[in-house]
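Researcher: Re-running this chain for the archive, since the previous output was lost when a drive failed. Same request as before.
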Amino acid sequence: MKVLHIITGLDVGGAEQQLRLLLRHCDVRSAVVTLTEPGPLAEAIRADGVPVTALRMSGNRDIGALPRLTALIRAGEYDVVHTHLYRACVYGRIAARLAGVRTIVATEHSLGASSIEGRPLSLGTRALYRATERLGHGTFAVSATVARRLAEWGVPARRIHLVPNGIEPGRFRFDAGARARTRDRLGIPQDAYVVGGVGRQVPGKRFDAVVRAVADNPGTHLLLAGDGIERVPLLRLVHSLGLQNRALVVDPTVHGVPDLLSAMDLFVTASEDEAFGLAALEALAAGLPVRYVTCPAVEDLPPEAAPGARQVAPDQLAAAVREEHLAGPRRLPPPQAVEHYHIARTAELVTARYLEAHHRGGLFRRRRTPVPAAVPRPAGPAAPAAQEAAAAPPAAAQQAPAPAAEDTPATPAQK
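Model: Regenerated structure tokens:
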């Protein structure tokens, strides 16, 4: 089976890293197309043996990329096209439909309550999402929270399937030697209490709130790993608060996330609008106590699945840091949640969906009774019944052959 993954870009982000993991664990022939420049992950994926093609679109409205993408898909004779992130889903589903691909699916990585991929949702964004969603055959929601949001948008429940993100737990296992080496390399005292965070430095992640929480707790140190448009403002904030001697903002591609997590004592995520919470899950795998504002990966499971993680109100971050600092550093055994979200399990679910689609001639055929989901759902609320919404597709989408009536595959949704 040949699968083409289409993604907006290959910068270092959660969706991009998740794609690389999926490629390494799915037992199918794969290729990748990035709509923008190759990005830092392109070479890593190529080194894993997966070809990567960059379309180098000039922007969201570069319609000229559509015929090129369609031709590329048609020439590859792919059995499945799997899209990731908003722009890739819009262009990828239209192109795959024009190319006559048998099965078109999407993974919804970043649909928040009021934003998608860190950007505010607009009526236009939502309308285009729904219009192109109907050109595919199913959407993989990375959490039950995302599944509910898709249903609230009017995506039919029969086309929403829970396929959680996954991690390689062993990669993040605490390493005392790495802790000492990383602290020494970064100039962090070995006995310092280090509060940390990892992720794209964009406004929605609210790393500024973590900086302020550490500023309110003298004696604590801060270690943030990531990059993005908020990096320079964060550095300015560090200086304005006088934290130059106890706060660092570093590049995770240089130092490595596992080593950085080993160097931390407490992991804090301040985002108020998450789709999953991959960084928090990696921190749990490293044995760190985690304090979060929003984290569906944890919230969608029973409390005993991640006893080291605790939700805090946005205005209580400083108090949470203070409480943990007073308790002193501790390392916890990786909780049940870590194995629940093992990437091997995620890859099995995705591969099973591919094979089911291939043998049935389309992922989820339209029926009066929804097809039962074969994907096991974690304990917690399941995706609610969806309302069928009738959004008119944009001009480009109208040219694409629509799925047939009652017996034809339905559609996916994605960013």
